[in-house]
Design a protein that fits this description.
It is a single chain. By secondary structure, the protein is α/β, with parallel strands linked by helices. The protein has one domain: Hexapeptide repeat proteins (UDP N-Acetylglucosamine Acyltransferase, domain 1, 3 Solenoid), CATH 2.160.10.10. The chain contains 4 helices and 19 strands. It has a 7-stranded mixed beta sheet with strand order 2-5-8-13-16-18-19. It has a 5-stranded parallel beta sheet with strand order 1-4-7-12-15, with helices on one face. Strands 3-6-9-14-17 form a 5-stranded parallel beta sheet. Helix 1 runs antiparallel to helix 2. It is globular, with a radius of gyration of 18 Å.
Length: about 200
């Protein structure tokens, strides 16, 4: 890229982040969450880090990242502090993060398109709350785990290292290292043998 091209890119980048900060101060964190869904993927990691997420080196994101329930206190400097992703991980297109509680993803993980991390469940009506009380727990994904397209990982789940989650699985319970799981609800299919 020539000098003029780099200068134009730098000006556009600086304008993008200055505008994001200004609108964050005016309208709150929902503005940043909306920008994450449409901003160039080269800006996703920096935008998340600027607002409290811990993202390791060489982690890449596709576009259309969806974030719900960040810390909504207006003016707080770290609304995405409940998101931690280790170095070298890959986050696919349209991945959904419910940040009501922590989503902790290890190093070198592959999170495929459309995966959803759900950290809470809350029935709105009083009658249902009596039968199904509010649940809120973090989600933990071990190093090297691969989660297939459109899988859903529910609150309180902890997956060990080097697990494989089949596409479309609904993970409702925790599984140890080297587990291959799939189905609705997800069940153990086999255990991998580490070399």
């Amino acid at each position: 890229m020539n000098i003029l091209g780099r200068l134009i890119h730098r000006v556009f980048r600086d304008f993008f982040f200055a505008k994001a900060y200004l609108f964050y101060r005016l309208y709150g964190v929902e503005y940043i969450s909306e920008k994450l869904a449409i901003c160039p993927r080269t800006y996703v990691v920096e935008l998340l880090r600027r607002y409290g997420a811990t993202i390791g080196k060489n982690t890449t994101f596709k576009n259309n990242i969806l974030i719900d329930n960040p810390n909504m206190q207006k003016g707080i400097s770290n609304p995405y502090a409940n998101m931690q992703i280790g170095a070298g991980s890959y986050i696919g297109k349209s991945v959904y993060f419910d940040l009501f509680d922590q989503v902790l993803i290890g190093e070198r993980c592959a999170i495929s398109t459309g995966v959803k991390f759900i950290t809470h469940a809350n029935a709105e009506s009083d009658e249902l709350q009596n039968l199904y009380p509010r649940q809120q727990e973090k989600v933990i994904i071990g190093n090297g785990t691969w989660i297939g397209t459109n899988a859903i990982v529910l609150a309180g789940v902890e997956l060990g290292k080097l697990c494989v989650v089949g596409a479309g699985a609904v993970v409702t319970e925790s599984f140890p290292d080297y587990s291959v799981i799939g189905g609705v609800p997800a069940r153990l299919i086999k255990t991998l043998s580490p070399k």
